[in-house]
Design goal:
By secondary structure, the protein is mostly helical. Helix content is about 70%, strand content about 0%. The protein has a domain at about 85-310. It contains 15 helices and no strands. The termini are far apart. The relative contact order is 0.11. The model has no long low-confidence stretch (mean pLDDT about 90).
Length: about 400
């Protein structure tokens, strides 16, 4: 059965060719149409995921959630958008106007740009570049710029302090994030996102569960969701770097946060849960987009669950968790994975780095063993550190400074 997206693409090409478009002009028009479709879909999806998150958190906290505007409160977010569009954007005196207004636009544009290389199906992908993983790492770093611009241009010392603290946390969690982003690249031998998906005869979450967990936690911190929501800790620093924003300027930051939360879920599903792969996808390629969004929403539900249940941590706890646990564990896991994979390939017959799920079982077993080893080392180290801390509290006179 032909892929629906391929059929649509062929129809558009024939239609535009009939109108006289060809060569570079045809490619530009097709790229613009694809970009508008993806951006329009994501902006519409944002209305649904905000409603979805508010309803799920309401259930977790024994509340009802939106239930007045439209059936089950589905149009509540539409009403909120219309209300925010009528609000005045108050610009503080002394603020730097251009970066002040550009900051929320860059925050949202950064998230939307990440979708350019995410494959919905085998053939439905914006740009299947050979350095897709590098593109993801580079574009995600642009979000830091919007935070610094917002804090610096607001002419508010509290907004500036909030921006510095936010960037310090985000840069810190970028380290384990990039290290774990290298795991699928090393296992696949390619930075193409589609190649990583196609290589997952057995999902990497089963072969490398610890890597998937660290990747997800670091991404969760990048979105600044609970327990990492220090970027807008109202009780500590007057709502952080966007304290001076109002109306649609604030709503744009709000939109970027929710879209980013769903985007990291899509990234996790793509890199560790097989992306569009699933039963009968070879016979019916269009099923790939169904599998992709089912997996993305499953990960997103975990994101919402964490936000509705976990309390906010202190900044020192968050930084200690990153630099004293996630970074060492990530480095150790990355090194041992490379050593174990290459050693097993040299010395074990039948060890395969590609093929069907049955052929991939020995490799997955070796990689899973590496994950268990590193997880065990991390647990033992944490237990020993906890014992030392308890002894220092009970017997402060014997504590070593």
């Amino acid at each position: 059965m032909p892929d629906l997206f391929t059929v649509i693409d062929d129809w558009l090409v024939s239609l535009l060719t009939g109108w006289g478009a060809s060569g570079l002009i045809l490619d530009i028009i097709l790229s613009l149409i694809g970009s508008l479709v993806v951006v329009g879909y994501l902006l519409t999806l944002a209305l649904f995921i905000i409603w979805f998150e508010r309803k799920v958190v309401a259930r977790i906290q024994d509340r009802i959630g939106p239930n007045r505007v439209g059936p089950w409160g589905l149009f509540q977010n539409v009403a909120d958008v219309l209300k925010l569009m009528t609000k005045e954007i108050v610009i503080p005196s002394g603020a730097d106007l251009i970066p002040f207004l550009l900051a929320p636009v860059i925050a949202t544009a950064t998230v939307l740009m990440l979708w350019a290389v995410l494959p919905f199906t085998r053939n439905a992908i914006g740009t299947d570049v050979s350095i897709g993983v590098l593109y993801l790492a580079a574009v995600s770093s642009l979000g830091f710029m919007s935070i610094l611009m917002a804090g610096w241009s607001s002419n508010n010392k509290y907004a500036l302090l909030g921006a510095f603290r936010a960037v310090a946390m985000l840069v810190s969690y970028e380290v384990p994030l990039i290290l774990m982003l290298l795991i699928p690249v090393l296992l696949t031998g390619s930075m193409r996102i589609n190649a990583i998906v196609e290589a997952q005869s057995i999902w990497y979450v089963f072969s490398m569960p610890l890597a998937a967990l660290i990747f997800y936690i670091a991404n969760h911190a990048e979105v600044a969701r609970s327990p990492f929501d220090l970027l807008e800790a109202e009780s500590e620093i007057v709502a952080g770097y966007h304290i001076e924003y109002s109306g649609m300027a604030f709503a744009t930051f709000y939109l970027a946060e929710f879209l980013h939360a769903f985007t990291i879920s899509a990234l996790t599903a793509t890199l560790f849960l097989g992306g569009w792969r699933g039963p009968f996808v070879d016979q019916v390629p269009t099923l790939g987009i169904v599998y992709f969004f089912i997996k993305s929403f499953a990960v997103y539900f975990v994101n919402v669950w964490a936000r509705g249940t976990l309390p906010r941590l202190r900044i020192d706890q968050i930084m200690d968790f990153c630099w004293k646990l996630l970074v060492p564990v990530s480095l150790l896991l990355l090194v041992l994975t490379v050593i174990a994979d290459k050693t097993a390939l040299q010395f074990f017959s039948g060890y395969s780095v590609g093929g069907t799920a049955i052929e991939m079982l020995p490799r997955s077993a070796v990689l899973f063993g590496v994950n268990l080893l590193v997880a065990g080392i991390a647990v033992v180290s944490l237990a020993q550190q906890g014992r030392r801390d308890r002894e220092a509290d009970l017997y402060p006179e014997t504590a070593v400074d």
